[in-house]
Amino acid sequence: MGVTIGGKTLPLPILQGGMGVGVSLERLAGAVAACGGMGTISTAACGYAEPDYAQDPNGANLRALERQVRRAKELARGAGLVAVNAMVATTQYADSVRTALRAGVDAVVCGAGLPKDLPAIAAEVPDSGAALAPIVSGGRAAGLICKLWDRHYRRVPDFMVLEGPLAGGHLGFSREEAQAAQAGRSKSLSALLREVLDALAPFREKYGRDIPVFVAGGVKGGREMRRYMDEGAAGAQFATRFIATEECDASPAYKQILLDAKPEDITIVQSPVGMPGRALRSPLIRRVEAGTQPKIRRCVNCLTPCDPARSPYCISAALIAAVRGDWENGLFFCGAGAGEVNALSTVKAQMDQIMNEWRAAP
User: Fold this and answer.
1) pLDDT digits (tens, 9 = 90+) for 137-158
2) Peptide bond before 21: cis, by omega within 30 degrees of 0?
3) What is the Cα–Cα distance from 167 to 133, expressed in whole angstroms?
4) 3-class DSSP assignment, residue 82
């Protein structure tokens, strides 16, 4: 059952997706890892609660990230693995990766853009030995990143996360594709998985090792995880269901908003990152749709593609408001199945349920 990732063993085939700002930090990541999965800290504005964040957001983020990685590793007690999710589109992407590696993180997962230079950044911390993984949306992206890493660094990813169009947060699909997926009219995750496995086949052969692929986005539980594993996946990544746990780092108010959400509350938004995303239709989103959202007052320069003069809202401010439970001003990212999450639980209960379903699946 264990999965070999970058020379380390992941006891259970379960990844917890990175959720920012502040939704998945050391408590959630450490709890998932302690149960044998891979817990993930989101590096996006992870220092938002530091007392000097307003004056020095960059310094606060890196200081907090180092502490969070070390604490998550302590909570894991050597059972599972601790990863960070570093968004390529953030201005602190490279610094966040270096900080996490120096703090002893087991894996670096990168999305919101292709991490073309991730191996070069990791090489600056040669003693780390952390596994490196891109998040991809299909075979084309998987093949491209392997070709680039092979050509420039003579290596390939240690594993990959395939996020389908039903995932929460930023999506590697168009708004129309994400909406079609919600209505059940898009290419299936199984079809995308076949594309990725086909794209990876020549690189697996060349390097003589596996490149495990974890599927994400709309995977409801262990039964579906078993089906995807029968189709060639190494396991699955879950995110939204872990928000409704006692260990999740978000505020109780944030968790309650998710528990109260209905399927019809989920919508596709256009993020200042430049990508569509799936989120709850909060008052902030309604104001953006109506063109009445106030202009950005202060920019902390968190995203490379963001133009404050043209962006409809500040994504950092919106995500910080959300994690604190501010329904009026928050951006609440969620997966397509968020409306089905209706009870507070624990990480252990969630992990046990997934694995029990996996074992019982035909």
Assistant:
1) 999 999 999 999 999 999 999 9
2) yes
3) 18
4) strand
